[in-house]
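Input.
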Amino acid sequence: MEVEIPYLEYFGLNEKPFGMTPDPAFYYESKYHKEALDSLRFFLSQKEGFALICGDVGSGKTTLSRIFLDSLDRKSYNSALILNPIMDEMEFIREVLKELNAPFEPHTKKELYDTLRTFLIDEYTKGRETVLVIDEAQLISNELLDFIRLISNIETDKQKLLHTIFFAQLEFLDRLKDDRLRHLSQRITVTCYIKPLSFEEAKSYIHYRLIKAGMKGTMDVNERALRLIHHASKGYPRLINYICDRCLLLAYARSQNGIDGNIVSRVLMDDNIPLSSVRKHEEKKRSVFEISLIVLNFVLILFILYLLDILKIDEIMEQFSYIFSFIRIK
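Output.
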C-alpha cells in the first residue's frame, strides 16, 4: 500500500523530492563525488586490486556506488555488490558467487574459492573483468578483510582478475593502520574522500531535487532558510533531505508557498537538531555589522568635529588609536 504524502499535490510534485533511501535517479554530482568517480575509472584502467572511497555518515557513498556500477560497460565488466558485509568467509564467498551469477555447490571453503577462481579466469579469457563493490566496509571483521586480500591474489602474470572497491565510513581508515591489516592497506592504491556539500552545492542540490521531483517553476526557499539548512546539516545530503522533507510538511501545514527561516528554525527545534553552529554563525555576522556601524558613526562624528575646528588633527589620530584598540578587543 502506497503511503500518501500530503504535500505532493499542494506543491505540484510528482514524487517525494527528499527521500531518505539512496536513489540514483536523484543523484547530484558535487565536486567530491565527481572526483571519486574519476578516481574509480582511473583505478579500473590501471587493472589494480583495491580502491577505497571514504566519507562520513550520510555523505552519499551508497548512491555513488550505485552510480558507479550502473556506469560500467556490461560487455567488459561483471560486478558484485555486497551491501551488508557482516558475515563469515564461507557466507561471503557464496554471496559474491551469487551476485556474479556463477553456479556453485555449497561445499567447503576451498571448493568455493576454486569455483570463484575458475569463474574469474574464464571471464577474463572472454574479455570481461570483475568488479567487487563492498558497501559499509567499516563493518567487515579483520578475519574477513584478510580473506578478501587472499582472494585478490587470483591474477594473471600482468593484472588482478578481481578489482575490489571498499565504500566505508572514516573509522575504516583508522582500522587500516592496525599492524594486522598492513598487507591489505599496502594494496589499496586509490583512496578518495567524499566531503560535505559547500553552501553553493547544497543550494543547487535542494533546487535540483525539487525539479527532479516534478516541480514546475521554482519554489521560494529564501537565503536565510538555505543557510540554516546548510549549517544545521553541515552539508551532509542525508541530513539535508531529512530537514527539507520536514520543512515541506510544515509549510504545507501552514499553507505557505515556500520555505523561509522561520519554517526551518521550527523544524530544527522540533526535531532537536543542534542550532549552536547556526546561532554562532548568525551572531558573528550580527557582531561584525554592529561594530562596522559603530566605527562608521565614530569616524563621521570626528570628521564633523574637525570641520567645525573643534578637534585638531593630533586629537583625531588619538581617537582613531582608541577605536582601533576597541576593534582588536572585539
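The radius of gyration is 28 Å.
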